[in-house]
Structure formats: C-alpha cells, structure tokens
What does this fold into?
Amino acid sequence: MASVSSAGPSPGMSADGAKVNIAFIAAIVAVATIGGFMFGYDSGVINGTQEGLEKAFSLSKLGTGLNVGAILIGCAVGAFAAGRLADVWGRRTVMIIASLLFLVSALGTGASHTSLVFIAFRLLGGLGVGAASVLCPVYISEVTPANIRGRLSSVQQIMIITGLTGAFVANYILAHTAGSSTAPFWMGLPAWRWMFWMQTIPAAIFFFSLLSIPESPRYLVAKGKDAEAEKILSRLFGAGQGAGKVAEIRASLAADHHKPKLSDLLDPTTKKIRLIVWAGLVLAVFQQLVGINIVFYYGSVLWQSVGFTEDDSLKINILSGALSILACLATIAVIDKIGRKPLLLIGSAGMAVTLGILTWCFSTATTVNGALHLADNTGVIALFAANAYVVFFNLSWGPVMWVMLGEMFPNQMRGSALAVAGFAQWIANFAISVSFPSMAAKSLPMTYGFYALSALVSFFLVQKLVQETRGKELEAMEG
It folds into this structure.
C-alpha cells in the first residue's frame, strides 16, 4: 500500500481508509507494553541496591560490575533466542514464558545469599528482559495500522521508562522508610532485598494479561494458519479486511514458502549480510554506546561520587525518569508526522553536545577525602546537562530504535533480524555497563568523552544507513 501523507488518515482509519477497531488495538497494545514496563523495572531495580550487594557479598569494583551486568548476558541470550523461538512458537507464547522468568528472577534475587546465586537469578531475569525487549515492539508493529504504528510502538519506550521510574520510586520509598538501602525493613530483612521482591507484582499482572490477547496474525500466516489470522485481522482492521491482509502478508513471504531462517539475512546474490541488517545493528549497538544505561544502572552511585547524598541521588533518578516520560510523550506526538530518521539525527546531535558538557564538568572534579567533588556551579551544570541528555535520548534513540527494529525488516526475516540485532544490543549494553566502574575509577572524563564521541559518530551513520519507514505497511518493507 502507498505511504500516507504527513497529515495521514485519522487514528481510527487505516492507510486505505478502512475503519479499524482502535479500542481492541489499544487494549492488546496496552498488554504488550507491560513487557516494556517489566523490561524497565528489571533493568532499573539494580540502581540503589549496589551498596547492599557489596556489603552482603563482599564485592570488589569488578565484582559489583559483574553482579550489575549479569542480567545483560541473559538479555543477549534471551533476545537472540526469543527472536528465533517467536518464529516457531509464536510471539504471544514466548512473551508468556518471559513473564514467568520475571517472576522467578524477582523471588530469587531478593532471597540470594551468595553472589553466584544472585547472578544466576539475574541471568534468568535477563532472559525475560531480552525476550520482552524484542518481542513486545514487533508484536505491536504486527497488530497496528501503518499510520499510527509509530505512536503506538513508542508507548513501549514510555513503559520502559515508567518501569525504570517505578523501580526508582520503590527503591527510594523503601530506602527512605528503612533509613538506607542496607537497613532492616519488613521481617528484619534489609531494604535492598525488598526492592527486588516488589517486582513480583507487575510480573504477575503481565502473565495473566497475556492470556487475554491474540497471537500475531503475521506469525499465523507464516505458519499456514490463514483462517485464524484472517479472523484476527478482521477484528483488528474491520470486517472484510482480513482476507486482503492475509493475501498481502502471504505475498510478502518467500516465494518458495520456506520457513524463516537465519540465512534470510544474507543477500541471495552476493551472500553478504543485507544492508538493512547492518542498519539494524548500527541502531541496536549505538543506542548503548552513547552510555544511557550508565544513568539508569549507576545513577545513584555516580551522583553520590560527586557529592550528593544517597537520598538526593535517588530523587535525581526519579527526576530523570519523569523527564524521560515527558520526552517520550513528545515523540509520540511527532513520530508519525516528521518521521523516524529526523528524530534520530536530532537525538544524536543533542546527546553529543550534552555528553560533551558532562565530560568537561567531570574534568574539573577534585578529590576530597578519596571521593570526587564538583564545585557548586559545575555540579548544577552537570545535573542540567545529564537531564538534558536523558531528554534527547528519550526524544529519539530511546523509542525510535525499538520502533525501527519492530518495523524496518521484511516479514520473512523479521524474527531472525531481531534475534541478531537484539543480541548485539544487549552485548553492547553488557560491555558498557560492566566496564563503567573500572573506567570511571580511572578517568570519568575519558569515559563520558567516549560516550560523546559515539553519539557524534551515530549522527553520520544514521545519515548514511537508515531509511525512513514512516507510513509504510510492513508488507512494503524492503531489505
């Protein structure tokens, strides 16, 4: 189908003018985005627990990095496996498995009494996070009309940030009420353990909610279940639309009707990796190389290292989360009007500047009693720059990367491409997160200088590799 104009049809109409069931679409998108909330909560809950982990397990700086970053290895494996398993078992089924992994991980990490056990349960949680990170966006893209797909897919990032902020708020309340994250709380157990156990509530909600939504119709067509897919598509896009949609999806699959496989990522003529796959890898990796998760995983420790109290540091985390949500709301308002690529370019430029300012601020820090200290005025500038950086990220690369990965690949290779891109994204996340404590101990300015340089490089890579997908039907994606 043709691309829509910048104005586009109304949200209740598809690109070809058919009336869609917007209430039903909104309901199942809401359920799918709980996965984003879990993604954010499980990623953010570690922020504020490091002191408790260090005391409980007698960790070194490297040990802290491994305990914090352990989840990311699970995320990489989970993202790769989920992308492939979603082509075999279905998007919904794998998301249900992910919800159970969230539940088990939350219970286990809070109860852990050794670093090894803690890492094992964080790895399990990582499998769930990795699966949710790639499957929730693709599920949303596969059940929504092209003209509002960007807006609805961007809700995923809002839920990720809401999950992060929810973890920050819960951690703050627990630590503030107990007196500190290591102080005894309910049942005489330290507050940091309850920070992990709080996650069981949204995990249970996610599991039961998933039981009420349908399978992705594009998966069903790929599996030869055309009648079931037609029924769901008719309910989504209006009576009489199902058969036509099934035909379009069927036509977009491989001509020989082979099942999706990793070799689909190679150009059949040159046998080289397709350019669209390289574009996806650039988006996935550079979203992490700009250092965003340092703010979310180590924000509390970072701000304490430059003179803020633990209480104030946790409040700053909450402020960053709130600003992130506002930035994502702005993205929802414009992503289907101005497109994905302009937002990525704006974000790259803004992050390069704000990270550059942070690099300068940290270069002026002095050491007082073994701890870094920023002058009052410089501290204010650093705080402003850090939050401006968070806004630029969540106005652009935060939501847009997930939107693009969910929609940019042709139907035949979507699962395989997501497996590879998701794996690369989480490996980059792991490398950045685990390396931060030791890198920051050596030189905080050089560390942030690397993130600033990555943001600058990402600007030129987006210009060269990324193609606009605004308003295009998934069946029209080319690779």
Observations:
- The chain has one domain: 22-213+253-476.
